[in-house]
Amino acid sequence: MALTPTWRLRAAFARRLSAMYGTEVPAYTTLLEVTGQINDEVAGRDPDAGRLGSLDRVTAERHGAIRVGTPTELRQAGQVFAALGMHPVGFYDLRDGDVGAVPVVSTAFRPLDATELDRNPFRVFTSLLTTGDRRFFDADLESRLTAFLARRRLFPPELLDLAARAEREHGLDEAAAERFLTLAVDAFTLSTEPVDRAWYAELERISAVAADIGGVTTTHVNHLTPRVLDIDALYRRMEERGITMIDRIQGPPRWAGPDVLLRQTSFRALAEPRTFRDPDGRLTRGALRVRFGEVEARGIALTRTGRARYDALTAETDRRTAGRPDAERQATARTLWERDFPRTEAQLHAERLAFFTYRPVADRPRDGRRPPADRAALLADGWLTAHPLVYEDFLPRSAAGIFRSNLTGDGTRDPHRDGTPFDAHRLAEALGRPVHDPFAGYAAQQDRSLRAALTALGADEALRALPAPAPTASTDA
After folding, report:
1. N or C: less crowded end of the chain, CB within 10 Å?
2. Which CB contacts under 8 angstroms, 24+ apart, belong to 303-307?
3. Is pLDDT at 291 greater than 70 in this prediction?
4. 447 — pLDDT class (breaks 50, 70, 90)
5. Three-state SS for 87?
């Protein structure tokens, strides 16, 4: 019997999840429509529009977001995503913002291999509630929250069994694939079960995110994010459609230089009708604002040094614009970037601030000469070409900013208490899987491409000059 391979399961799941979410959140369908229009327009006028991914890839691209309450739930979510060829990459701590309590740590499940990313780059940003963090939850609330979470089951055993089989066999037969996809989409569909009004309100006073995770008996997709080639145009056009957007585009400013890392924005969380169970047992209708429509524009992946430059510019922008309107912030950020950030991809490469892949120029006239040993000379003399790597991951500050901008209130957080220590190693223990270091992944891809290009050119001296390949770093459980 023919096997449906992992990547086809992933692509099918992304399509079905998108269809389901469009039914639940009609404004998401508008977002997809506007995104598609802008992508077509940009591709039509800019011959270099596919530099960071083909139009087919960009059109299919989505990232989802879910939230879970316990390490067991996180481990089970990891099993479902493993069936789709998606692995935990990166550690994001969203608990430390000054405004808007977000008591979660996160990772992103996505493919690791470049070929798999090109086939379908579906990602799911997955957040875990930190119930033991005393800045948010006292001992009594933690105990009651832990008991509530222990009583629920997010993923049915049949789904987990099929997911384990798909991971083990690298796919499923047609009937099992259909059953797996049905159960997986159902697991992330918004429940119609009544919400305990008093319990939800108690958690919401701490954080709307905490209530969305621990105040209900299921999980659901919080947002499903398409990729757009001009996020500023999309922001304007969505508002022209009468859809209220959050107050800013998160991430690097719009400027005349290279697009780097990730820019994100969203429409505001919508008031969605829900059924509540009141303290007297009556069922009444109300609404919750927990789901929103995010959109992203992806740029070039930066090295650790490049990321440090970005972080420093962001901090300086914050310092100069504290308490000022967002328009001033954007203008200040552009001024700082134009002064302190490389204006071209060539400069990014020369200063080793970004990741690139390399290709040999096979038909270059050699005139009896051998390729030089120096990488810069290989590029300058036309032996190699460098192509920027697209950033496949997330920014904790931007993610927290999107979360906070869609909350119903700032929540409460006691800054005088210590937070629960949490890092990538502890997250890996909870998952029972390694958490991969995104920087190491980009570096390994860059190194492989360079070695392959130099081998194709016969550039033995340049090959010998390279350091030994570093292992792809991960945090093992």
Report:
1. N
2. 303/352, 303/353, 303/354, 303/355, 303/439, 303/442, 303/443, 304/439, 305/351, 305/352, 305/353, 306/260, 306/348, 306/351, 306/352, 306/353, 306/354, 307/261, 307/439
3. yes
4. very high
5. strand
Q: Which of 150, 171, 163, 172 is nearest to 76 (CA)?
A: 163
Hey, what are 13's tokens? 């799941």
Secondary structure (3-state) at 110? strand
Q: For residue 406, what pLDDT is reported?
A: 62
Q: Which domains does the chain have, with CATH numbers?
A: 3-291+392-424 (3.10.180.80)
Percent of the chain at pLDDT above 70?
95
Residue 224 CB partners (closer than 8 Å, separation 6+): 17, 18, 21, 28, 62, 63, 64, 65, 293, 294
Cβ–Cβ under 8 Å, residues 199 and 148: yes
Distances (CA, A) of 20 to 25, 246, 317, 433: 9, 24, 40, 29
Whether 449 shows a pLDDT value over 70: the answer reads yes
For the stretch 210-242, pLDDT in tens is 999 999 999 999 889 999 999 999 999 998 988
What DSSP state is assigned to residue 38? H
Residue type, 298: R
Give strand pairing partners of 297: 263
Handedness of CA 169, 86, 79, 444 (dihedral sign): positive
> Which bin fits 194, alpha (ψ -120 to 50), beta or left (φ > 0)?
beta
Alpha helices (H) along 120-196? 139-150, 157-169, 174-187
Alpha-carbon torsion, ordered 164, 170, 174, 175, to 10 deg: -10
**What pLDDT is stored for residue 477 in this prediction?**
47
User: Is it the case that residue 345 has pLDDT exceeding 80?
Assistant: yes
How far apart CA 81 and CA 116 sit, in angstroms, is 14
Structure tokens at 388: 């920027």
